[in-house]
Amino acid sequence: MHVGQRRMRTPRVRPTVIVMNPPGGEGSDDEAYAGLALVYEWLVPDALLEPRDAADAFAPAVELIPAGGRVIDCAAGSGQLAVGLASRGFDVTATDASPAMITRTRDLAAHHAVSLATAVCTWQDLPTLAVSGPFDAVFCVGNSISHADGRQARRSALAAMANLLSPKGILAISARDWEQVRAAGDRLDVQDRLVHRRGRAGVVVRAWRLGETWDDAHQLEVAIALPAADGSIATHQERLTLWAFRRHELVEDLAAVGQDVVTVTTFLGPGEYLIVARPAATPPAREGRP
Ligand SMILES: C[S@@+](CC[C@H](N)C(=O)[O-])C[C@H]1O[C@@H](n2cnc3c(N)ncnc32)[C@H](O)[C@@H]1O
């Protein structure tokens, strides 16, 4: 090196890590979704990102709803399905336990210039919802029902949903195939492609820590790494607690709250399924005089 020549130093890129809920912390799933809401579109599959596509994807349920019918999505998340259904002319209410998710749903509805009713509401609080039933369809999709902690909680959540239905209404639940999740064991899933949203490419990593038995809590740590133009990486990371169930158990739970299964279809591939159920037919009236 000549005298006077200055060594150029390569700037050290320091990753920015935004940990919304510290791993291992006791953050609730509400807090986790407050963090995930900031970047939730990186978790929404391409096929469901556009509201109209989201409504199309749920055709086995949507086709059973009368035109202009009343619909509630009670785990609306960032709102793609609710907004897609409102665009189709349904009278939509979107609820979710997470205020941040409901804000995203409202923003998406405004962006698409559709109107829908929204409320922050847990399944437990559905009976007190200001927008009362009956509804022609209740949706609880995207594996949301796995947040109900165990069979009793799942049944009371499903009962609250079923109570909103008109006699010919439908209840649509989509869920992960937990048999596959448990068969694969504890693992780290690194998505093998970049996910492009809002002009930014991201990488999604999921770390599964399964409960020892079906009845134990299952942990899913989700991290979304978003490289920025300056070379830094912002990582949004949250831990969710989920409760597993076999498909036949969900069918039994639906039966326990008075719902008959109409269809079961695979949803976006073999790892997820969609169940459409409706209130069991009332027993035929007895003939003859009482
Ligand atoms: C995996 S996200 C799915 C969101 C959306 N349905 C989708 O498919 O993208 C689960 C959603 O369920 C909501 N959730 C969890 N527990 C809930 C409860 N007890 N009552 C209402 N919503 C709940 C969460 O806030 C979150 O928005």
Any descriptors?
290 residues, alpha/beta, Rossmann fold, N-terminal domain of TfIIb, 2 domains, 13 strands, 25% helix, globular, binds S-adenosylmethionine
Give a short synopsis of this structure.
The chain has 290 residues and is of the alpha/beta class. It has 9 helices and 13 strands. It has 2 domains: 206 residues, Rossmann fold; 65 residues, N-terminal domain of TfIIb, CATH 2.20.25.
Number of alpha- plus pi-helical segments? 9
How large is the share of residues in beta strands?
Answer: 25-35%
How many structural domains can be distinguished in the coordinates? 2
The outline comes out as: globular
Mind explaining what this structure looks like?
Helix 3 crosses helix 5 (80-87). This protein folds into two domains: 8-177 and 245-280, Vaccinia Virus protein VP39 (Rossmann fold, 3-Layer(aba) Sandwich), CATH 3.40.50; 179-243, N-terminal domain of TfIIb. The chain has helices at 29-36, 46-49, 51-57, 59-62, 80-87, 99-111, 151-162, 178-184, 247-256; strands at residues 16-19, 70-73, 91-96, 117-120, 135-140, 165-176, 187-190, 195-197, 200-209, 217-227, 233-243, 259-266, 272-279. It is built from nine helices and 13 strands. A seven-stranded mixed beta sheet has the order 4-3-2-5-6-13-12, sandwiched between helices. Strands 1, 7, 8, 9, 10 and 11 form a six-stranded mixed beta sheet that branches. The chain has 290 residues and is an alpha/beta fold. Strand 3, helix 6 (99-111) and strand 4 form a beta-alpha-beta unit. Bound molecules: S-adenosylmethionine (SAM). S-adenosylmethionine (SAM) binds next to helix 1. The site of S-adenosylmethionine has 16 residues, from helix 1.
